[in-house]
């Protein structure tokens, strides 16, 4: 691990704190993070398989393009209806899954380890979304092209997701706007702005909003509805966390505090 990232001020408990890192430190953490390395290795393997079973330039481009088109819609559906759904924490056998894949991220939005999805969850999901599309277009080679494209997009998504939680103001206006919309999702109202790099699908389904004045602040923006009352009724996430769910960032004072 880089000496830069051994700095105790950059680490809080189980994860690097993006709120205390700069862009250079993010690049080091990102490019040396095991999950990202695994995605890159699998993408290289997929494109190698594509080269050995090349279906032609047309099917290859079509398979990759189809994944690029489908990905924002798939992410939106997963994010809105599964990650923000309440059914997973209400079953003991899926409570830990929900905790890991999204609850922890909303409880601690700037912590890197819970920002990246677990490969045990993400890689099968990427495969399920992309491989059938590629196979229909170009059989084995098309599947390889589609899966490799999905992994590449995921790496891009994850990097921009880090930027959105990083203590850094992007120079490019479009990245600034992207970051502002995602910050609203985490700190104002979680029932909107589900996109990461694109909010086109949010616009289509009416979940897009541009500033905090557009809607009142949600009381469940940090706990996704899993408040103390829900935790008492469905205790499995709280048991794994070891503490009751929070409705504000760690260390933030209560609103009625002096």
Automatic annotation (TrEMBL):
Q: Annotated region Disordered: where?
A: 239-258
**Which Pfam family, just one, is annotated for this protein?**
FA_hydroxylase
> What is the protein name for this chain?
Sterol desaturase family protein
| Top-level taxon in the UniProt lineage | Bacteria
| GO biological process: one example | lipid biosynthetic process
- The portions of this protein that span the membrane are 27-49, 61-83, 120-138, 144-163
Please provide, alphabetically and separated by semicolons, the GO molecular function terms listed in this UniProt record.
Answer: iron ion binding; oxidoreductase activity
Q: What keywords appear on the UniProt entry?
A: Membrane, Transmembrane, Transmembrane helix
Boundaries of every Fatty acid hydroxylase domain copy = 67-207
Entry's InterPro entries?
Fatty_acid_hydroxylase
Point to the regions of Basic and acidic residues compositional bias: 245-258
